[in-house]
Design goal:
heterodimer, A: alpha+beta, Rossmann fold, OB fold (Dihydrolipoamide Acetyltransferase, E2P), six-stranded mixed sheet, five-stranded antiparallel sheet, 21 strands, globular, B: mainly alpha, MetI-like fold, 11 helices, disordered C terminus
Chain lengths: 360, 229
């Protein structure tokens, strides 16, 4: 089945900047990733209709939103595309509740698929309803802005770095809500970010942009791995980022146990409560690979798994291992030969307790 | 010479109607100048502001050329409807409206310029068309500026003299507003008390409108500061 619903190929020149966008966007959670100034925001504005490209087309399902050739330009208010900006852009003369209902009131009753009570509950907005936008914190304002966009019942939600101005704990909460919105309402989302961990955690696919062009697209792990070697991303070694839940704390040993699905890791005690969820990163270069289950080892975490792929990227070798979770291990070329590593081979991953980094 | 109360009533009526006449055009021009870029914007801006610097007597003379019984437009009015606009209280209102117009436009333009256009942009992605946004976002957010502009225009209308005397004359009970009455009385002997009374009343009205206008502008700047902070 063809999963694509948005096809776009357009050009736009703005002062000294030239954007040449070409991509197919699928249902799902798509991340637009790239350094600042690469054209991510301009792309979103073209999709929502706030900017008109100079040439090309934008096709949404079977509806043309823009076609230079056929002189079609659908106004933003007719597109049904929600757009949440980096700054929340709430209407200052209206209460939070009035803000939320602004687009709702303009949506035809038969087109509504988001309703007030659901959105309020999902984004935990009920204590804010009577407040004025001036009095909200950055995170609160952004939640209201997301709720406001949802209540206009969009067919697609564009998010332009909505978490940029938000502090860490709130960021993770909001990120979780976004994922929930996407899953519960099967709402396609295009999410602009320059934060690698966000993209890897949340996106089904990624469009990698650079200097006004889409350089690559597809599975986030594959796309971003290919860019490990490129100069911009060279400082980011490939990361294994997992969202884990704290399941046990051993005060005596000074360790704690976290779980990701059926896989458990032991690491030094961290400041979190039972049931808390957070992101962990295990640098691929700090994982040791063995072909037999090791004995007499101080490392706390030994995971059996099967090799799923071996890739050479910019002089580095990455071994993908399915150990209940997908883990990427960085090795040197000699290791592959010496251990006769190949797809499907059973291996053991050895991870020191201190190799884990909590992502804040 | 009509009684003082009649002069005041006439002045207030003419100024009020002149201000209301300005309102829709001033909002339109203020919005156009604040939000749109078009060819000839500078020329348009200059034309709108011209009555601010032109001697009012000259403005009145232009009005006579256009709306007078033999003017470009006035002669058709007279030919088809048998109406002559000049030298009526309506002419006094038009003269006051034209002279006060730039003041009104300026206040409204600044108020609209101070609204973050990105807020209006956000509204468009919430299914709101331009006209809806204008009514529900732009107008309410510039309301204080609009009211301040109207009060400023009203104060200017009360004081209007030059254009009125050219275009509407100085007809007691018809076009003789406070400034014109003061002018007439000053040419007569022994009218000092009446002059002083009129001056005091004119002063009170002008002072009140200006003060309210200033208070509104300040309050609006303050709330605006919060909105951006």
């Amino acid at each position: 089945m063809d999963n694509s619903f948005l096809q776009a190929q357009f050009d736009i020149r703005l002062k000294s900047f030239h954007l040449q966008f070409e991509a197919v966007i699928n249902h799902g959670f798509t991340a637009l990733f790239g350094p600042s100034g690469c054209g991510k925001t301009t792309t979103l504005k073209c999709l929502s209709g706030l900017l008109q490209p100079d040439s090309g087309f934008i096709q949404f399902n079977s509806t043309p939103f823009f076609s230079h050739e056929n002189k079609i330009f659908v106004q933003p208010e007719k597109r049904g595309i929600g757009h949440v900006f980096q700054d929340s852009r709430l209407f200052p003369h209206m209460s939070v509740k009035q803000n939320l209902l602004f687009g709702y009131g303009l949506t035809q009753p038969h087109e509504r698929h988001f309703f007030f009570d659901d959105v309020i509950a999902l984004l935990k907005l009920s204590p804010l309803l009577d407040r004025s936008p001036h009095s909200l914190s950055g995170g609160e304002a952004q939640r209201v802005a997301i709720g406001r966009a949802l209540l206009a019942s969009p067919q697609l939600l564009l998010l332009d770095e909505p978490l940029a101005a938000i502090d860490q704990p709130n960021r993770i909460n909001l990120l979780t809500s976004l994922k929930q919105i996407h899953q519960e309402f099967t709402l396609p989302i295009v999410y602009v970010s320059h934060d690698l961990s966000t993209v890897l955690n949340i996106a089904d696919s990624v469009l990698l942009m650079r200097s006004g062009k889409v350089e690559a697209s597809g599975d986030p792990f594959v796309v971003l791995k290919d860019y490990v070697s490129s100069d911009f991303y060279s400082q980011n070694t490939l990361q294994n980022i997992f969202k884990v839940k704290l399941t046990r704390t051993d005060e005596k040993a000074g360790t704690c146990t976290v779980a990701k699905g059926n896989v458990e890791f032991t690491l030094p005690r961290i400041n979190a409560n039972y049931g808390d969820e957070f992101f962990l990163d295990i640098p691929g270069s700090e994982i040791i690979i063995a072909t037999e289950r090791p004995h007499g080892l101080s490392a706390r975490n030994i995971l059996p798994g099967l090799i799923t792929n071996i890739q050479s990227v910019g002089g580095k070798i990455f071994i993908g291992v399915d150990a209940g979770i997908q883990v990427e291990v960085e090795v040197v070329e000699k290791t592959v030969e010496a251990l006769k590593l190949a797809n499907g081979k059973q291996v053991f991953l050895i991870i020191k307790a201190t190799a884990f980094r909590r992502i804040n | 010479m009509s009684p003082t109360t009649e002069i005041i009533q006439l002045s207030l009526k003419i100024s009020l109607i002149a201000t209301l006449l300005d309102l829709p055009f001033a909002i339109a021009c203020g919005w156009l100048l604040a939000r749109k870029n078009f060819r000839g914007k500078m020329l348009f801006d200059t034309l709108v502001n011209l009555p601010l610097v032109l001697p009012p007597v000259v403005t009145g003379y232009f009005l006579l050329m256009v709306f007078g019984r033999n003017g470009f437009i006035g002669k058709y009015f007279y030919a088809y409807f048998g109406i002559s606009i000049s030298f009526t209280w309506q002419a006094a209102a038009i003269a006051a409206a034209v002279v006060a117009f730039p003041l009104c436009v300026r206040a409204i333009r600044v108020a609209i310029e101070n609204i973050d256009p990105r807020i209006e942009e956000a509204a468009r992605t919430l299914r709101a068309g331009r006209w809806f946004i204008f009514r529900r976002i732009t107008l309410p957010l510039s309301a204080n500026g609009i009211i301040a502009g109207l009060l400023l225009a009203f104060a200017r209308c009360l004081g209007e003299f030059g254009a009125t005397i050219m275009f509407a004359g100085n007809i007691p009970g018809e076009t003789q507003t406070m400034p014109l009455a003061v002018f007439s009385l000053a040419n007569q002997a022994g009218q000092d008390t009446k002059i002083l009374l009129l001056i005091a009343i004119a002063l009170a009205f002008s002072f009140a409108s200006l003060a309210i206008s200033e208070i509104l502008l300040r309050r609006w700047r303050r709330t605006d500061g919060q909105a951006n902070g």
